[in-house]
Amino acid sequence: MGCWAEPFELASPVRSFASFKGQKNFTGEYWAATSRTQVGYESWVERDAAMALDFDPAVVALSSQPFRLTWTDGERERGHTPDYFVRLRDGTGVVVDVRPEDLVDEDTAEVFAFTARVCEEVGWQFRHVGDLHQPYRVNLRWLSRYRHGRCYHAPSADRLREVFAEPLPLLAGAEQVGDRLAVLPVLYYLLWQQELTADLVTAPLGTDTLVRLASGGCP
Predict the structure, then answer these.
(1) Are 111 and 159 in contact (CB under 8 A)?
(2) How far is CA 185 from CA 178, 190, 198, 210, in A?
(3) What is the pLDDT, as a whole number, of residue 172?
(4) 149-213 maps to which CATH number?
(5) 77 by DSSP, 3-state: which?
(6) Do domains 8-129 and 149-213 have the same CATH topology?
(7) What is the number of H-type helices and E-type strands within the chain?
(8) pLDDT of 133-185, one tens digit each?
(9) What SS3 class is residue 34?
(10) What pTM did the predictor assign?
(11) Where are the domains of the chain?
(12) CA–CA distance from 199 to each of 136, 165, 167, 214 (Å)?
């Protein structure tokens, strides 16, 4: 079962994403800057998971609903379509299922356990992802607005790398480069690219958030 190198990160969804009046979940497509492709989701939790994968520097490509597993547990036929397939920079394949922890019942846990065993057999990893914690979720949602290359401006980016060679408050550093309305989108783009770093976990990004050049960056 040597499936580990198959390009499932390029696969089209094996089923459609339903959208109808009155439905309780939200479906849509997320544009992944990593692979420059549209990735489907069936809930805000899945959308946030796709966003976090897109932000992960180890990820080079991802796809949604990439394949369907079918099996029998001795009593009934079972089936499961994982939410995402991810290709890592080192070539590893990762299957991702998204479900808040409080919604993982016994039946779901059995499905995830079977999926994890299949992944192990073919040389993939398996991840179960739940809700992103705030304020990390809020910060990623904000930075994701600036993930597109149109937010990059080389002269401003070069100056930002110089200015933030040592930690500075976000707004004070941006204003050293130029007009904040022009500079902040570039700053947020570099944060999304992780050329600049800041604490995204313990508090929402703000004017006083300390920002610095990432380790290994070139001021």
Answers:
(1) no
(2) 12, 9, 15, 17
(3) 98
(4) 1.10.10
(5) strand
(6) no
(7) 6, 11
(8) 999 999 999 999 999 999 999 999 999 999 999 999 999 999 999 999 999 99
(9) coil
(10) 0.90
(11) 8-129, 149-213
(12) 9, 16, 12, 12
Among 57, 78, 80, 58, CA closest to 68: 80
Please list, in sequence order, all residues whose beta carbon lies within 8 angstroms of the beta carbon of residue 137, skipping any fewer than 6 positions away: 48, 131
Question: What does the angle CA 88 – CA 47 – CA 15 come to, to the nearest 5 degrees?
Answer: 85
User: Strands 168-169, 196-198: parallel, antiparallel or unpaired by DSSP?
Assistant: unpaired
CATH architecture of 8-129: 3-Layer(aba) Sandwich (3.40)
Closest CA to 51 of 86, 7, 80: 86
Supply the pLDDT for residue 32.
95
The position carrying tokens 């998971």 is 49
Rounded Cα gap, residues 50 and 31, in angstroms: 9
pLDDT at 219: 62
40-83 pLDDT, tens digit each? 999 999 999 999 999 999 999 999 999 999 998 777 888 999 99
pLDDT at 60 (0 to 100): 95
CB-CB neighbours of 130 under 10 Å: 16
Query: Which sign, positive or negative, has the C-alpha torsion 78, 79, 85, 91?
Result: positive
Per-residue burial over 156-192, b if 16 or more Cβ lie within 10 Å, else e, is bbebbbebbeeebebbebbeebeeeeebbbbbbbbbb
pLDDT score of 4: 61
